[in-house]
Amino acid sequence: MTNTEIRPFRVDIPQADLDDLDRRLAATRWPDELPGVEWTYGVPLGYLKELAEYWRTGYDWRAQEKLLNELPQFVTEIDGQTIHFAHVRSPEPDALPLVMTHGWPGSIVEFLDVVGPLAGPRAHGGDPADAFHLVIPSMPGFGFSGPTGEPGWHTKRIAQAWAELMRRLGYDRYAAQGGDFGAMVTPDLGRVDAEHVVGLHVNAATVGFIPFGGVDEESLTEVEKARWARQQLYQNDGNAYFQLQATRPQTIAYSLVDSPVGQLAWIVEKFKEWTHPAADLPEASVDRDRMLTNVMLYWLTGTAGSAARIYHATTHSAESPYRTEVPTGVAAFAEDIPIRRYAEETNTITHWSDVETGGHFAAMEVPDLLVGDVREFFRGLR
Question: Mind telling me the catalytic residues?
Answer without folding.
Answer: 180, 311, 360
